[in-house]
Design a protein that fits this description.
Elements: E1 7-10, H1 16-26, E2 32-35, H2 37-43, H3 46-53, E3 57-64, H4 68-81, E4 85-89, H5 94-104, E5 111-115, H6 123-128, H7 135-148, E6 153-155, H8 161-168, E7 173-176, H9 195-201, E8 205-208, H10 210-213, H11 218-229
Parallel strand pairs: 1-2, 1-8, 2-3, 3-4, 4-5, 5-6, 6-7, 7-8
Length: 231
């Protein structure tokens, strides 16, 4: 079973109450949420279980980058919480990605996604850490590495989705943060795109954050996202 809803709302909050308020306001309008390191640290793993108990899917964005044994343990913990997706750093190499995939096999609904290049990074940022490639080139290189390691999909910006889809084929998930509605400020994302552009380019899922969670009316905002996708 693949994660169903193409729209993932990022709960980028530093406290559980604020996150719960958004989830309650959205109700049945949203079935899929991203829980990252900030909220997980503030609210604890119990919040993930709370979302799953409410019938929601959870993208647990851990960006795991550790020795393979530790990564495997964290993936098993994510599966036990009921997460639908968990992320590892593709820069960790084949060893940690393969360990994550092996650990996920015990959980039928858990998908391992490899982060390629975070959406705030540019070519100059990569050069700072000794990578002599453009962001797009590095995304493709790491996406192919993740695919060979058995990952179920990758995380990349909307601007790389088309090339990734062309290289990886139709099956892998391509999840795109850095998504904002037309005319909105993409915030810290250096390689943004609109929901429609991301999906048209080949993304299977889009991640929206402040466009929805900080909107005066989150329900109206997510309906705009859905309208942009033609859903």
């Amino acid at each position: 079973m693949e994660p169903n809803s193409p729209i993932i709302v990022a709960l980028d909050f530093d406290n559980r109450r604020a996150a719960e308020e958004v989830v309650d306001r959205l109700g049945d309008e949203c079935q899929f949420y991203k829980v990252g390191l900030e909220l997980l640290t503030a609210a604890g793993p119990d919040f993930v279980q709370h979302l799953v108990a409410k019938g929601k899917e959870v993208f647990l964005d851990l960006k795991l980058f550790e020795i393979p044994n530790s990564v495997a343990g964290a993936v098993r913990a994510a599966g036990a919480l009921g997460a639908s997706m968990v992320t590892v750093h593709s820069m960790g190499g084949t060893g940690i990605m393969a360990a994550a995939v092996a650990a996920a096999r015990d959980f039928a609904c858990l998908r391992v996604l490899a982060l390629t290049v975070v959406t705030s990074m540019t070519g100059s940022d990569l050069a700072d850490v000794g990578v002599n490639a453009s962001a797009g080139e590095q995304v493709l290189r790491l996406g192919q590495l993740a695919h060979r390691a058995g990952c179920h999909g990758v995380i990349a910006s909307p601007q790389e989705a088309a090339q990734l889809r062309g290289v990886l084929g139709s099956n892998p998930l391509i999840v795109t943060p850095g998504v904002a509605l037309p005319g909105e400020d993409p915030a810290e994302h250096a390689r943004p795109g609109t929901p429609r552009a991301a999906v048209a380019a080949g993304a299977s899922h889009i991640v929206v954050g402040r466009s929805v969670t900080r909107a005066p009316n989150p329900v109206a905002a997510i309906r705009l996202v859905r309208a942009d996708l033609g859903l």
